[in-house]
Design brief:
Helicase, Ruva Protein, domain 3; three-stranded antiparallel sheet; Tetrahydropterin Synthase, Chain A; elongated
């Protein structure tokens, strides 16, 4: 067996990010060929991923990144099996790079699309595989979304301090001046925080599926089946209105001022910024 120099082991470690012993073993198995050793380490990661394919990835981090011009932003989740791995430097570095891949992805959704995206000559899929090899755990990109402004407006992201839940919201405005207003920028952040806390099912009632609405109406009707027949429909409609107010973002009571709805606080901020605004869409990601 050829003698593997410490310098060669260190070179492979710097190139792969793997541990010294793993690098040494890979070099010994490949006769000191660094490129073959890198392939071997990647295969090790793929083998581990395949073996642990059915394992739950209930830990991880939500990451978000915005483009320098503020016209595009992306959010994704990197998931693993244990909190121990989540707290490691290797996982934190991979999560940070995931933000770059999310922003660079040519598609707006789809985990496979982000996995096939390349940054600096390396695919996101390779980063995940290398992390699997380092940690011995199943690692997966769980969610991905990218928003791009096609009309005047702004995109705001918020990630909770624990890194496990985050929101991205896009707001359209009547003009660029309104979008640049400090009051609107602040309320956009506040609305993102609101979404993180309240978990709305949809932007408005049009986003609630007819099946869900019919199910809720049936439940409400069952709850009041002993009421007089001539008032049941009216009571059900009242309960349905409350359901929408609790689950549709635009109708929810704002968490920082429950005397107003989200729509009302947005309208006020837009007016302060000199125009009008409306929420176009949002996404909320959570791991665990």
């Amino acid at each position: 067996m050829a003698e593997i120099s410490a310098a060669t082991v260190m070179k492979l470690r710097q190139m792969s990010g793997q541990g010294m012993m793993d690098c040494k073993k890979a070099l010994e198995e490949t006769g000191g060929d660094v490129e073959k050793a890198i392939d071997l380490l990647r295969k090790k990661g793929l083998a581990t991923l395949a073996k642990r394919a059915e394992r739950e990835t209930s830990e991880g981090l939500v990451v978000g990144k915005a483009g320098g011009d503020g016209k595009v932003a992306a959010m994704a989740t990197l998931c693993c099996e244990t909190d121990f791995v989540t707290k490691s430097d290797d996982f934190a570095a991979a999560a940070k790079s995931l933000g770059d891949f999310a922003l660079a992805c040519s598609a707006d959704t789809g985990v496979e699309n982000i996995l096939e995206t390349s940054v600096g000559g390396k695919k996101c899929r390779d980063i995940v595989t290398e992390l699997v090899s380092k940690t011995g755990e199943k690692i997966a990109v769980g969610d991905f979304a990218k928003y791009t402004l096609d009309l005047p407006g702004l995109i705001s992201t918020y990630i909770h301090f624990n890194g496990k839940v985050g929101t991205m919201v896009q707001i359209e405005t009547g003009d660029d001046k309104t979008a640049a207003g400090d009051a609107l920028k602040q309320i956009a952040v506040d609305i993102a925080m609101h979404i993180t806390a309240t978990k709305p099912q949809a932007l408005d009632k049009n986003g609630i599926s007819p099946e869900v609405i019919e199910r809720e109406k049936a439940i409400f009707a069952e709850q009041i089946k002993n009421k007089p027949a001539n008032i049941i429909d009216k009571i059900v409609e009242g309960k349905l209105k409350k359901f929408f107010a609790e689950n549709c973002l635009v109708d929810q009571q704002f968490v920082k001022d429950d005397s107003k709805t989200v729509t009302q606080v947005l309208d006020e901020a837009a007016k302060q910024s000199g125009g009008t605004a409306k929420i176009k869409r949002f996404v909320r990601f959570e791991v665990g």
